[in-house]
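JOB MANIFEST
job_type = single_chain_structure
chain_count = 1
residues = 695
[input]
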Amino acid sequence: MSDFLVIVESPAKAKTIERYLGKKYKVKASMGHVRDLPKSQMGVDIENKYEPKYITIRGKGPVMKELKTAAKKAKKIYLAADPDREGEAIAWHLAHSLDLDIGSDCRVVFNEITKDAIKESFKHPRPINMDLVDAQQARRILDRLVGYNISPLLWKKVKKGLSAGRVQSVALRLIIDREKEIQDFKPEEYWTIEADFTKDKQTFQGSFYGRGGKKLPLKSEAEVKEVLAAIKGNEFELANVTKKERKRNPALPFTTSSLQQEAARKLNFRAKKTMMIAQQLYEGIDLGKEGTVGLITYMRTDSTRISDVAQKETQEYVIAQHGKEYVKNTEEKKEKKDKKQSNAQDAHEAIRPTSILKEPSSLKEFLSRDQLRLYKLIWERFLASQMSAAIMDTVSADIANGDVVFRATGSKVKFPGFMKVYVEGSDDAKEEKENQLPTLEKGDKVTSEVIDPKQHFTQPPPRYTEARLVKTLEELGIGRPSTFAPTLDTIQKRGYVALDNKRFVPTELGGIVHEVMVEFFADIIDVEFTAKMEKDLDNVEEGQVQWVKVIDEFYKGFEGHLVKAEEEMEQIEIKDEPAGEDCEKCGFPMVFKMGRYGKFMACSNFPDCRNTKAIVKEIGVKCPTCHEGNIIERKSKKRRIFYGCDRYPECEFLSWDKPIERKCPKCEKLLVEKKLKKGVQIQCTACDYKEETQA
């Protein structure tokens, strides 16, 4: 018989914690929530102050039986679910099912699964926080009222299996609005003039700035010719040289959203994958003789705060590894103070390693490749956040020929500071290039070797990647750390959006659902309305307002929209798009269908004929090898897109990069779209020809 029973959500977490607490403690897992609203009905009594009807989740009977048996044998029961709204609600449901007094000191919370943190948390148990529980209940009930009222309408009027939700509808709107911006975009012509200058046999680059000391944008070839005509000879003079010392501060430690964004940029991880691996690192990894250890703090957080203990340990590590000058000083800390968002709850610390002494290199044998990559990212980001600013020497020089002025800028690292460990990624397509300048002084003479005018066209705003969409949702105050990954997952599973080159593109179905929402439920997809609702729900958590009042204010307006939609929404028939060919098995026309992995062709005589075919997607390029076949898009067994000749196996041409129709202007060979971390670049497959990178 154990003196104490501790209940957590997952078996991995239970295993780690039990080892720290000793023989008197038995740690069991509830496997997540044990009670929820029923799936078969609304489960909310609207007439009785929105009273929720909770039932034991199907399949959880054996788990609850085991927990009740263990509870009867224990002198004291502790509920140690995650330290957030969801965890508090799980603890409350467990207390209800096990007949525990929610006012007793039964709740234990910790931000990291380490021996010291666990032992300390059990010294300070507390009652269940009903404000947190009410905040979770309010969100759950609100989402149920929206989903279980709108979704049946969509099933009846549009197509079965559709759904609508508060956050997912706004996310879909952002994607569709961006697509409309792209379609409506009218490119504008502009020109640049780049020049190579030489001083003391060293070449450096400069760009046309303006004339007569004023900045002058170039909008046409005629304006460019006018500038070039004004340049007399190839000798220029340095009209002005500005030298400055600039500080570059480190990025703050990770929050949930910034981790998802950076993991997408640097590791190419989807948001769902990032959170799954972070959960594993938080719950604990078996480190051999050391046993199972939690490697990072709780990964659902919007705070960048860190504990004094973690700061002190990291400062000592920085001094030992890099020297005292690399430690962030007090002034720098004030300068880089976190400008916390108004919607940040600051409930826990930032995401950081549980100990900076657990270097990624020492954990290689215990972690999978992806676990190690994500841990290394978190470890380096946190270490860098506690290091001193980098110091950059910057130079800006105005180079004049008559009234024509070019400008050259350059920078070099004077002191690397945090950059010795880590530099934050960027969503911008163009990376900063370090332009090494010679020693320049006002009045110096330089010569121009090459003056190269180039025509450009403005580009439309880029489609949303997962990282960009997460960042936008956070900035707008839509959703919370725990909702970003499931939201992106849902809109893809429903077929509302598809990923093209890792960017979201709305589907026809997504467009139809959005139009219905715009016409009948404009508030649900209104960004400001949804952000205000999030704030109201946060106020419930702060104990500033009753959850029933928040729900009631929303539902009074929502109910009217529902009645109107029921009466006025017309039936929308989504017809299968003809594929333009007949089934080779029965002769009926083939149609396009949407499946788990995108569109495919199926026989319209289903279910009598179940013939299906993959869609052969031609890209309008002749095969460069056999010159007879056409290049088509194919997919590997791992669903990765590649390009090959449609005469395969007679012709074995293939390319991971997408060929394009025009030939290389230098050698007449094949040009391809090369996907880079920062966008797409046109490159030749035979020579060194490259074009400007596009986002």
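[summary]
The longest helix spans residues 130-157.
The longest strand covers residues 235-248.
exit_status = 0
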